[in-house]
Write a structure and sequence with these properties.
This is Hemoglobin. Keywords: Heme, Iron, Metal-binding, Transport. The chain is built from 7 helices and no strands. The chain is mainly alpha-helical. It has one domain: Globin-like. Bound molecules: protoporphyrin IX containing FE.
């Protein structure tokens, strides 16, 4: 059984991503990144992308993760905050601690892709 199945398949992942995304949109540090963007479309892409990561059917047709985040200049603190909200959301949705850990491990793999290296000059 994949993580996707244990999270409740398409409906479960979709519900979790929607709840996560609502929390991210109002987050003090993360929310402002999405001002003036089509958030519904981002949430839809985010759900498709995560379904595939967790072992569900591949439906994601958006840009590569590096390409879609590079211009944001994300730092470790943004990734940390994102993962913190993931943990809180899944805990509130009664996902098992083991599945939460596996989810975070999967998302951690994207850290080097999403976080822009800081030059020693700044
Ligand atoms: C593992 C963590 C993450 C995943 C899986 C993820 C996934 C995605 C996906 C699939 C898209 C849509 C790309 C497209 O439409 O082509 C996207 C866009 C975006 N993400 Fe993330 N993301 C993650 C972390 C973050 C973090 C930490 C931030 C910081 C706030 C962030 C901010 C954004 C923004 C602002 C966009 C829209 C960029 C634009 O269109 O200008 N993401 N993300």
């Amino acid at each position: 059984m994949t993580l996707y199945d244990r999270l409740g398949g398409a409906a479960g992942v979709d519900a979790a991503v929607r709840e996560l995304s609502a929390r991210i949109r109002v987050h003090t540090l993360l929310g402002p990144f999405f001002d003036d963007l089509d958030y519904d479309q981002i949430v839809e892409h985010r759900a498709d992308y995560l379904v595939a990561i967790f072992g569900g059917p591949e439906a994601y047709e958006g840009r590569g993760m590096r390409e879609s985040h590079r211009h944001l200049g994300l730092r470790d603190e943004h990734m940390d905050a994102f993962l913190h909200v993931v943990r809180e959301t899944l805990t509130d949705l009664d996902v098992s601690p083991l599945d939460i850990e596996q989810t975070v491990v999967e998302l951690e793999r994207l850290r080097p892709v999403l976080v822009v290296p800081q030059s020693s000059a700044d």
